């Protein structure tokens, strides 16, 4: 009963309750709920202070990175399975099947996350990317980013007043500028570290303009927190969503504990 949006909100409330109930005693359940459905009400004020001092508060908000990770994971899984089934591959190329799966998974996650403005913005960017891939057109990444920017502005003209708008598109532009035009691109953990360092340095002027402050330990804190949140904690929490249980959430909670211990230590530098 109820409208589709009401049913989504009931589902989100149910997921929140189940996650908190299944979280180990004394755990970082509030952080895991925030990464799963975007509800930050369970994060302790002391943790928010640590996030502020280290400049990693953006990581506990469901952002374009999280939406992209869900899409990439599901799309990659479908691609691997699709290539092993010749009958399906002959009907539809694995690359296009993976793109469709990525969009469907990201759309479901965006609904579960509550369709906040940053999530919708990231979803629109993914829609543009999938459309470009399915159309078979050769579109430069910079042009795809420009199309996504236009779509976002048409859907939400007031987005230009949001700091998140400039930070998200600025980060993507920095990534494209840092990896484009190179004969031998960095891959693996070296590439991830390099991109993170470039983003951390390049966005300092924008952060200063938006917030009039920039924690000196932010680049180092982000270097620690981004891999843990993006590639360990969030995927483990999302994998546990269908069957929330203490045993399934324990690895994510342990990783969250390591991250918070490191951030608290770094936060003392910013006093």
- Rg result: 19 Å
What's the assembly state of these chains?
Answer: single chain
Order of helices and strands: HHHHHHHHHHHHH
Question: What structural class do helix, strand and pairing data support?
Answer: mainly alpha
- Overall strand count: 0
Identify low-pLDDT runs.
Answer: 181-185
Largest sheet: none
Q: Calculate the terminal CA-CA distance, rounded to whole Å.
A: 52 Å
**Averaged pLDDT:** 77
How would you sum up this structure, described in words?
The protein has 271 residues and is mostly helical. The protein is 75% helix and 0% strand. The chain has 13 helices and no strands. It has helices at 4-22, 29-37, 45-54, 64-83, 86-91, 94-112, 117-135, 141-155, 163-179, 188-202, 204-211, 218-240, 246-267. The radius of gyration is 19 Å and the shape is globular. The model is unreliable at 181-185 (pLDDT under 50).
Entry keywords:
13 helices, about 270 residues, about 75% helix, mainly alpha, about 0% strand
Sum this structure up briefly.
By secondary structure, this protein is mostly helical. Helix content is 75%, strand content 0%. It contains 13 helices and no strands.
Protein topology:
Elements: H1 4-22, H2 29-37, H3 45-54, H4 64-83, H5 86-91, H6 94-112, H7 117-135, H8 141-155, H9 163-179, H10 188-202, H11 204-211, H12 218-240, H13 246-267
């Amino acid at each position: 009963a109820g409208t589709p949006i009401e049913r989504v909100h009931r589902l989100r409330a149910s997921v929140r309750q189940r996650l908190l109930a299944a979280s180990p005693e004394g755990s970082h359940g509030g952080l895991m709920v925030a990464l799963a459905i975007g509800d930050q009400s369970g994060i302790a004020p002391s943790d928010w202070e640590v996030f502020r001092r280290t400049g990693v508060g953006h990581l506990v908000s469901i952002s374009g990175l999280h939406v992209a990770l869900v899409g990439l994971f599901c799309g990659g899984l479908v691609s691997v399975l699709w290539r092993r089934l010749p009958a399906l591959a002959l009907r539809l190329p694995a690359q296009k099947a993976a793109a469709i799966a990525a969009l469907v998974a990201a759309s479901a996650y965006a609904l579960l996350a509550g369709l906040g403005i940053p999530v919708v913005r990231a979803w629109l960017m993914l829609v543009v990317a999938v459309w470009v891939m399915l159309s078979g057109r050769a579109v430069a990444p910079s042009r795809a980013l420009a199309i996504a920017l236009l779509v976002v502005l048409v859907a939400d003209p007031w987005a230009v007043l949001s700091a998140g708008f400039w930070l998200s598109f600025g980060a993507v532009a920095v990534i494209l500028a840092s990896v484009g035009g190179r004969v031998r691109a960095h891959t693996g953990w070296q590439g991830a570290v390099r991109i993170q360092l470039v983003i951390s340095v390049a966005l300092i002027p924008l952060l200063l303009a938006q917030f009039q402050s920039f924690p000196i330990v932010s680049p180092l804190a982000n270097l620690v927190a981004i891999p843990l949140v993006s590639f360990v904690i969030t995927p483990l929490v999302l994998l546990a969503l269908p069957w929330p249980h203490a045993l399934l959430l324990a690895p994510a909670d342990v990783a969250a504990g390591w991250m918070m211990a490191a951030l608290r230590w770094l936060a003392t530098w910013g006093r």
